[in-house]
Amino acid sequence: MGWSFFERELQFTTDGGMHWNSRSIRFPANVNAWTLPQSDRGYVVGDHGMIYHYRVVPVSYTAKGVLEAPAMPSQEGQDR
Fold it and tell me: Which of 6, 52, 53, 60 is deepest in the core (most CB within 10 A)?
């Protein structure tokens, strides 16, 4: 697994970098830094004090300020 952010686009690989995919996420500002401390949790920070907390929730979950983010592929069965 490999992950990268550029502006508001997440790039990731599940095969050691042989192939890369990307997903656009509608953040209100460009991403400056991010971390994925656990497989179901992450943090993104950006311009103008933007901080977002990513976590896996049911599809029906709603809350104020929530951004819809695409589901990411599982790491199960991947070499680490």
Answer: 52
